[in-house]
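B., you asked whether I could sanity-check this one before it goes into the benchmark set. Here's the sequence:
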Amino acid sequence: MQIRQLFDATSSTYSYLLWDNNTQQAALIDSVQEHVDRDSKLINELGLSLKYLLETHIHADHITGSGKLKKHHFSEVEIVIHKNSNSVCADILAEHGDTILLGDKTINMLHTPGHTNTDISYLIYGAVFTGDTLLIRGSGRTDFQSGNSETAYNSIINQLFTLHDDTIVYPGHDYNGFTVSSIGEEKILNPRLCKNKTSAEYIAIMDGMDLPKPKLIDQAVPSNMKCGL
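And here's what the prediction gave me:
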């Protein structure tokens, strides 16, 4: 399995291109509309067959490129997002426990809500792509768009933190220059979750963040319900 981490500087979003070495089947996680040409060029240069466009959730800070990638570049690709999105453009409305195959590798879908109610973490081959649920030394905000701090805590503690400590964590964003972590590292060093913090302590941390409204939320959320088209 190969993984390429791609970056959008405007929204500090990570996209991920991953593929199976044996079959060259590929998936792209959390594409960004402004980088459709970049990503399609890379996929073609590498000789990959794009099978899936995976969304970790309905984003509020950028517009997905999935619709344009399917419409203009990869007509056979399947768009995947959680069923709570009620998306009319997705090919697969996923739920917890679903699996899909990328070559001979299985992608396991974990419903990890809390940032939104559409959050999916994708577990594959010793790595987990956590979207905004778990970040490096942080976690996704819970103060809008069906967010809930207690739900987020339970998703992290009872699902993600039960994975093997060596599981590599690829987050949906980073604002401090970090690129990758691990489950074991976040258990010890994530200030919102380490030292056996209780649900009440986590809720207090999240409720005290007082963050500004995402600049693109009013445009991004409805657009992403339509796969960016």
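One thing to flag: Residues 36-45 form the longest helix (10 residues). Otherwise nothing jumped out at me.
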